[in-house]
């Protein structure tokens, strides 16, 4: 395994290996399997960053469930969140009385999630919880009570890999890397 890699014009060092991600993902899936056993949850993945986590998480679920994806346009390639949110695409329109699990790659300031939750609640779902692979507690602007499942809490630093990009590069990396230099 390479401990240091280059993505675009920056160097990154290993942060969380794929093996650790898989172990933690199995633990979260076990929790979800127990807690949503008879609820036929609808998992809604937030693209693009969630794609690997969503796939690995759902492969470990053993309960009847449905799967959907949505997209929020934001975060234009740089290293810091602009907080500028645009639009939601593809949010399912039949969420009333459903048990929802929103699957995210990372919660940073929480602004994206706050925006998504506002839209989701308009449809009066039965329950809403969020499952995020990564969470930066130091960056969150206001607490999000729905954030029930967190893979790893990480410091307030930029990470790439396992779905997360740096200027659209690096999503295919199997480990998660942190920015260095
Ligand atoms: P928030 O709205 O919580 O500040 O940011 C959420 C979005 O910003 C994430 O879905 C992700 O696209 C992007 N983001 C936040 N922190 C990072 C990071 O460390 N690395 C990458 N690649 N994207 C991040």
UniProtKB/TrEMBL annotation:
Its cofactor is Mg(2+). Pfam families: Pribosyltran (PF00156). GO terms for cellular component: cytosol. The keyword tRNA processing does not apply. SUPFAM superfamilies: PRTase-like. NCBIfam families: HGPRTase. It comes from Pedobacter cryoconitis. Its main location: cytoplasm. Keywords: Cytoplasm, Glycosyltransferase, Magnesium, Metal-binding, Nucleotide-binding, Purine salvage, Transferase. This is Hypoxanthine phosphoribosyltransferase. It is an enzyme of class 2 (transferase). It catalyses: IMP + diphosphate = hypoxanthine + 5-phospho-alpha-D-ribose 1-diphosphate; GMP + diphosphate = guanine + 5-phospho-alpha-D-ribose 1-diphosphate. InterPro entries: HGPRT, Hxn_phspho_trans, PRTase-like, PRTase_dom.
